[in-house]
Write a structure and sequence with these properties.
alpha+beta; 2 domains; four-stranded antiparallel β-sheet
Amino acid sequence: MCKLNKVLMAVLAAMSFTTTYAQSSAAQTNEAAIQNIMTRTSVRKFKQQPVEDSKIETLLRAGMAAPTANDKQPWHFVVLKDQKSIERYAASNKYHAEDIKKTPLFIFVCADTTRMSEGQGRELWVQDCSAVSENILLAANALGLGACWTTIYPIQKKVGGISRTLKLPANLIPLNCIIIGYPDEALRPKNKWDENKITYGIAE
């Protein structure tokens, strides 16, 4: 009986350690996730170092994990990662051609009009693809990459120009272009916390 009690005590001690370790590990994971959100910042200058294909797939998987209204998943991605494609894109932009050539990776987040809700819900694609974009930005930060959201939609001149340059089919609407690479500038996250932008409850 004494031997059995010792075995039981050892098992309980092991279970207690495992539980404590799991709780500690979960707390660290949660803290890391919050820190990733808080430290994300826009990066526009990159090292001349390609982004690995495995990381590109992780970014796209993170994007596709975003919430989506009515599970329509209206997103489609156009990825530029090879120098030839990037130079062709740069040639279409007379103002930022040199910066474009120095950027290792472009992900154009587009909406597919064949996968949208009907009626007023049709415009929900903007929210869906915005959620996708934020997931990509956060994933980039977590992977040690820098990224920046550059606007296309709803500026129709940009929408038309990008659609022609990328030779997009008529069913795709470019929302934005996310530029990505290994940062070559100091990262300076902004503290945007402002209690004056919060209202609790309903006014009497």
